[in-house]
Amino acid sequence: MYKRIGFVWFLLIVLLTAPAAAQDILPYQNPDLSPDERAADLLSRMSIDEKIGQMTLVEKNSIRPNDITEMYIGGLLSGGGGYPRPNTAEAWADMVDGFQQKALETPLGIPLIYGADGVHGHSNVEGAVIFPHNIGLGATRNPELVQQVCAATASEMMATGVYWNYAPVLAVPQDIRWGRTYEGYAENTNLVSELATACIRGLQGESLDVLATPKHFVGDGGTAWGSSTTNDYMIDQGVTDVDEAILRTVHLPPYQAAIDSGALSIMISFSSWGGMKMHAQEYLITDVLKGELGFNGFIVSDWGGIDQITPDYYQAVVASINAGVDMNMVPYQYTVFIGTMKSAISAGDISMERIDDAVLRILRVKFVMGLFEQPLAERSLLEGVGSDTHRELARQAVTESLVLLKNDNEALPIAKDTPHIFVGGAAADDIGVQSGGWTIEWQGGSGSITEGTTILEAIKATVADPDAQVKFDRFGRFEDETDESGNPLIADIGIVVIGEEPYAEGPGDSNELVVTEAQQSLIDRVRASSEKLVIILLSGRPLVITEDLELADAFVAAWLPGTEGLGVTDALFGDKPFTGKLSFTWPRSMDQIPFDFANLPSEGEDAPLFPFGYGLGS
Ligand code: GLC
Known about the structure:
By secondary structure, this protein is an alpha/beta fold. It has helices at residues 2-24, 35-44, 48-54, 65-70, 89-104, 134-140, 143-158, 189-204, 244-251, 253-260, 282-292, 313-323, 334-346, 352-369, 388-401, 431-435, 455-462, 517-528, 546-551, 566-572, and strands at residues 56-59, 75-78, 113-116, 164-165, 265-267, 272-273, 276-277, 298-300, 328-329, 403-407, 420-424, 469-473, 491-499, 530-538, 554-557.
């Protein structure tokens, strides 16, 4: 009896207050309104501190969690290697959601946006699938595949609450001595546009699942060797020493394509053009990108990129924000940035109109992404992180990325019942070398840094015939191997895997793109103990291999394939064909670099070793 009366009272209260509750929702909280309407309403309710907070992007190890609430921080990121401990997808989701809860405790409850560099999979996360770096995807010439790769990456990122990906790179690398060459799809502008927009579609999906960030605007791939003033870098973050006509024909078109494909955040380059750091380039950022190209998303600086403009931090901040940067990837001293912004606004050096424009752009994107409705990690997707489905996709991408440069004496495909196979080279059994930079750590690292299948493991798994023997030696020493009569054994097939040690950005700048002495000795040793020799190169760019090409019966450029080594053996042993085509011209010698693409000879000693687009079938 009493229960019934209680329920009636409860029902009455709900019915009487329901309409009021509905009326309590403020316009910006109403998902039925447009992003523009919601952003305008929210902006009108914000203080200057709340506005500055939205323009502040902080590296996750540098933030005092309560400052997210108290200083209204709008964005956080994990730089390369910015993982929680343990470095698991679930721990990532817990970490990011923990920060997000702090943002939701602010008076207006504006969710923060959390970013990371998922440049070849959610590649900071142990156990995530590591896909081929862009140089390999460029060799696939397959935009549908690239879209699927980026969609799988987006899914693994959403599972951890990271809804912002600092990818794809839109660089059009013109000098392969650049340590970021492998982050580019190609030396060719149109191919970059085609594949980068495919990735944007894959990342963002139909409802802006993960915000893509075409980067680094503009001309990052066109800098001159020796022009960098950052650390001991030689070309990374240097001067894009081209006129506006070249800038507009070679480096700018991918950004128009990206905007047309729905890009809503763009990252500025560390490089310089026209005598000015890109982070201060009002003409290119505001007049060209936002004006002429019609970009209506928000501009984010690169990691401390604003600081490089001038030693006077106040002037650097004023110049960059006024040039059109909307969000500053600080990444460390956020209280200094916020204080500087307050001073600049009160001094009138940065107008409220510019602040409101920047904040409106940021808020609008957050509304379009649905962050206000779904700010937390999509944990139902956690089971997909590192899943077999994603590994199969990566395996296909690896196979399609391989470029067969030589195949004489029917060396390839290798029969699965070949009696004796020698495998030489530490790189044959090294997930870290296979994956390259931007993997778990910023610079990557050799060794078994995450779950995956090495090329050696793949060879052993493929040559399953009990009569077939696979012998491995990291130094290629097989002189102790003997045949039935005790004579030195000559393998039917020798496979040598050589690789660049992982690197990222400027530390990878190099004027010596050559096979090392140790690698040459390895090749010579396996050559001497094999009937036929197959060389597999793991690298972030073409290397000078002219002599070794002569020594090998077959030569495969495998780039930086990532965790799925079976993708290499699928082609090596004939289950799949070789279809990859070079997306970078291959030099005969270092003297040819940088290429004068407008005047490339097609034959003779002055011609490249292999032209853009080269690749044998099998
Ligand atoms: C780096 C890179 C940029 C990356 C950012 C965050 O310095 O230049 O590509 O997205 O910092 O890790």
